[in-house]
């Protein structure tokens, strides 16, 4: 399988979008809704989206594996955002112009501080040696996940730097309809982006674990293919999301042969998310973790090594 694109920037929608004056379905604080038109985005056509690999868009938080302190490390997504005063000015401009383009930034004064270890994401534009925001007012970036940082405790639960391993969810090589949670060397994940999903991430749409026994894992972007994906057509995509059991996903990300990533989210099409029974959460899953780590989650999964569950969301540690 070819090396898939990594998620370093905002991914464009497969359709051209429009802005409607209504409450956002995705963000409570946003008083407008970005919706798809029926016109395919020229960026998608130029990247030959019709022959791209369609994969499941996962609902979690984005992560990245790259070197820190001389070894492969998990990094959490942290975008530099405007401070409160600038955010207010930016939203006023955005509302009156129905666009973010043309807003003037003061890079030194308009943004909240970030940790010294913060790095900008690949592809971020620079001016006079400083990273500049995208059209949404954010500067995408990353911070390393340290074990003693409570803010990223769920990130740190899925990695063990002492043994250099991560807990990864992926389709089984011999049966793509079945998932497996396994331990993977961080070195094998280097320079890839992944999604952290689980009990305490984004409202847990996949129904993993419980408050008493939380379950989290990493999923490499592009690793969960869509079976028999629909054509890139507005009406056919709407029907697929609405009627097909395989369409119970947050969205689709197309990995194009030139490395371009293109997406569509249910909210773009006016469809609700999350669904009661997600496609991912209902897939059978096996546990293949035989390497002991120093985190409680590693220990719990080692105790389940070799067990199979009829659904991913049925995984529990009391057997």
- The largest beta-sheet arranges its strands as 6-9-5-4-13-14
Radius of gyration: 20 Å
Q: Tally of extended strands?
A: 18
- Most strands sheet: 6 strands, antiparallel
> What is the typical, i.e. mean, pLDDT?
92
* Tally of helical segments: 5
Which descriptor suits the 3D outline?
A: globular
| Helix proportion | 10-25%
Sheet-strand content, in percent, reads 25-35%
Uncertain ranges: none
Structural class: alpha+beta
Cα distance spanning the termini: 36 Å
SSE string, helices as H and strands as E: EEHEEEHEEEEHEEEEEHEEEHE
EC number: 6.5.1.3
Enzyme class: ligase
Catalytic activity: ATP + (ribonucleotide)n-3'-hydroxyl + 5'-phospho-(ribonucleotide)m = (ribonucleotide)n+m + AMP + diphosphate
Keywords: ATP-binding, Ligase, Nucleotide-binding, RNA repair
